[in-house]
Each structure stands twice: as C-alpha cells, then as structure tokens.
Amino acid sequence: MSAQLLPSCPHLPASHAALDHHHLGRHGDARGIGFYVACLEYSQVLWERGLAARALLCLDRALGADLRGAEPELRSHPLPYAAMAWFLTHTPPEVFIGNPRVHFQHYADRMNEPRREQRRWRAWACWSLTRRLRPEWPADPRHDVVEPGKDAIAASLDLHGLPGETALWRQVLDAAPPENPLV
C-alpha cells in the first residue's frame, strides 16, 4: 500500500485506502447509484495515490451513471463538478493529469449511447470548467469540432441533465477565477 501523496478532495467521500478497480467491477453491468458512489470513492483513492488522470477518468464514469435525480445519495454526493474543478486546480505540476481540455473535447464529440446527449453535455460542461480553470491547456487543433458556449451547455443540461444539474455546474463555474476571454 503506497502512502497518500495528495490531500483528500473535500468534494468526494472519505478514502478507503484498500479499494482497487474491483470496487467498480462488483456492480457488473449495473450503472445506478451504487456504481456512482463507488466511482466517487475510487476516484478519491486514485487521487490520493497521485493518479490524477485516472481519478479524473473515474469521475467521468460517475457522470455516466444512470441516475434519476431523486436518489438520496445525491444530497450528500452531488454530481462531481466541484470535484472535477478541485482536480483541475490542485494537481501539482509533477503529477500527470494529461490535457483534460483535449480529453473532454474528444469525449463530448464522440459520445455513444446509453444516454448519449446527457453524457455528451456533461463532458462539454467539464470542458468548460477546464477552459475556465486551466486556460493554458490548448485544444486539439486537429480535431474539427464546434465548441459550445456556456449558454448552449446550460440549455442542453437543462434539457438532458438531472433537476438542478445546470445550477450546480454554474455554481462551480462561477466560483472559478476570472473568465478566460476565449470562453
């Protein structure tokens, strides 16, 4: 067991250091609230181990869970936009996180079913957070895609997201440092 390398993310459940990838596999094909919480828990463990890129991908998986919005667990563990912002702003320079801007750009543009539109607009919401929080990370110039603005993302989250999701995302976005003029 390796020592904790990064401080716990305050937006995720407490760490259970013994967790590994089997924690997600226990859910089989079920992608409901149990899988969602497991993704959040495992993301915290990966983060603390200094595996920022993998922790971020685990949040992607949480955002892909099949939720209805009325699950009681969402009150204590809301959709992880704040955790995503934490990862983007607290990853030390020597820790690999990749280029989340490119990741979300590709992810949103190449989304598959199930719940394609919901997951696609969540990816664009995370892309927007990345642009705001880490404007120095470049887009992929070889990927020809129309990048949506905040209003388009908000309208699409209103249409495809959970009740209150747009407000949650906007709250995290608005708490970020001054806007990148390119967004």
Give a brief description.
This protein is mostly helical. The protein is built from 9 helices and no strands. The mean pLDDT is 91.
Please explain how this structure is put together.
This protein has 183 residues and is mostly helical. 52% of the residues lie in helices and 0% in strands. It has helices spanning 22-25, 33-48, 52-63, 73-76, 81-90, 100-109, 116-133, 150-160, 165-174. α2 (33-48) runs antiparallel to α3 (52-63), α5 (81-90) runs parallel beside α7 and α8 (150-160) packs antiparallel against α9. The longest helix is centred in the C-terminal third of the chain and has 18 residues, at 116-133.
What can be said about the biggest beta sheet? none
> What is the count of structural domains?
2
What is the radius of gyration? 16 Å
Work out the number of β strands: 0
| Helix/sheet category | mainly alpha
